[in-house]
Write a structure and sequence with these properties.
41% of the residues lie in helices and 17% in strands. With 401 residues, the chain is α/β, with parallel strands linked by helices. Helix 7 packs parallel to helix 8. About 5% of the residues have low confidence.
Length: 401
């Protein structure tokens, strides 16, 4: 395969922007919509690559920031790229590192004002570890406090060293604490110019590194919860030669459908759209209905490690006493390895005993649950039953919340 990505639309859902399709990469095909599990440091916590594959995962996402700090993208490149390094044969995504540079740099994730001088700035509660200007982001490593500088060019070099099939342009993480005028400045002075620089460096590296499979690059749309800025960003990036688009930034949950629709209405219909950081069932339905094709999120694995397991009737905590003598399968409707082989009582025991196996079995279940949900949504778009499936699923799922 000489081209980095081919995207084909197969079905469209009447009355919405939902669709099914296939994304073909040098390491395989992804049927969309699809959930992409996150293996932050080239590993899904607690699972082998084979165990992750057996959940039905078609691809996985790795983290450029973490892999840059340890072991280093040069180490991964020397191993032959991320697929050889971690023994994963399927398609891979790598993020740009922008989210982690800024969110870990101040320690409060998406609610941080990076300027340091706003009345809404909450970074005063701890030492600030990241600073942004129009050229780059300067930050201290969360591992050892060493100083680093990320530019769009370095982000591309890191991602090409990692060797993921799908990469993302370097952008500025803005938050809902930033006012409208900061959002405008961020787009005009950083996210959009950085997209231009990312694309130029990406194209240079693809040509230079002909010994590696070609990599695709997605531009990242920003603009917070402002319709004019989201549409402006989508139009600007949509006119560039990206292979697809990331739908990123701070999103109000009550407006997520509108925000995704604003972006997708402006983006080229012929290219895929990846929703960054979404995994809750209600959000997945909403985002797919408004045009998103793929998703990634750490949440299913993270909550699993704390004993919270998904079911069709909502999320439950397996550490509760009611499961002490429950000798039935945790979820009789689930076809995952965990539910097919272990009882609720055993899972409860593992968590209560602090056994590492508890995290593995719970993660297998949660990843399979979300992967399977998106697979079922894809089938419902294809056969025209999406609205009925959505209504039935969310009615049952929300009943227990």
């Amino acid at each position: 395969m000489t081209e980095p990505l081919r995207f084909t639309v197969h079905h469209r859902l009447s009355g919405s922007l939902a669709r099914t399709g296939t994304m073909t990469t040098p390491h395989g095909t992804i049927r969309t919509p699809a959930f992409i599990p996150v293996g932050t440091r080239a590993a899904m916590k607690g699972l082998t690559p084979d165990q992750l594959k057996n959940t039905g995962a078609q691809a996985m996402l790795v983290n450029a920031y973490h892999l840059y700090l340890r072991p280093g993208h040069d180490v991964i490149d020397g191993a032959g790229g991320i697929h050889a390094f971690m023994n994963w044969s399927g398609p891979t995504f790598s993020d740009s590192g922008g989210f982690q540079v800024m969110s870990l740099g101040v320690g409060f994730k998406k609610v941080i004002d990076m300027t340091g001088d706003s009345a809404t700035n909450v970074t005063r509660k701890k030492d600030k570890l990241a600073w942004v200007d129009d050229d780059s982001v300067r930050f201290k490593s969360h591992l050892d406090g060493s100083m680093h500088v990320f530019t769009p060019e370095l982000s591309m070099q890191i991602q090409h060293g990692i060797g993921a099939d799908i990469t993302f342009a370097f952008d500025e993480l803005t938050t809902l604490h930033h006012d409208y005028y900061y959002q405008v400045e961020s787009l005009d002075k950083r996210t959009h110019p950085w997209a231009v620089r990312s694309l130029a460096e990406h194209q240079r590296l693809n040509a230079e590194r002909s010994h590696r499979p070609p990599q695709a690059l997605f531009g990242v749309v920003q603009g917070a919860d402002h319709e004019d800025l989201r549409r402006k960003s989508a139009k600007f990036l949509g006119e560039m030669d990206f292979d697809g688009y990331g739908l990123g930034g701070a999103l109000r949950k009550d407006a997520i459908g509108d925000i995704v629709r604003w972006m997708c209405e402006e983006l080229p219909d012929s290219k895929p759209r990846h929703m960054l950081g979404i995994s809750e069932p209600s959000d997945i339905f909403t985002c797919i209905e408004n045009g998103a094709d793929t998703f990634d999120c750490v949440s299913p694995a993270r909550v699993a490690r704390n004993g919270a397991l998904y079911t069709r009737h909502g999320r439950v905590n397996i550490t509760r006493a009611e499961y002490t003598r429950d000798y039935t399968s945790f979820d009789a409707d689930c076809d995952c390895y965990t539910c097919q082989n272990y009882t609720s009582a055993y899972l409860h025991h593992l968590f209560q005993s602090g056994e590492l196996l508890s995290k593995t079995l719970a993660t297998i279940h949660n990843e399979r649950f979300i992967v399977r949900l998106v697979d079922d949504i894809r089938d419902s778009i294809a056969d025209g039953s999406f609205y009925e499936f959505k209504r039935e699923f969310l009615t049952n799922y929300d009943a227990r919340q």
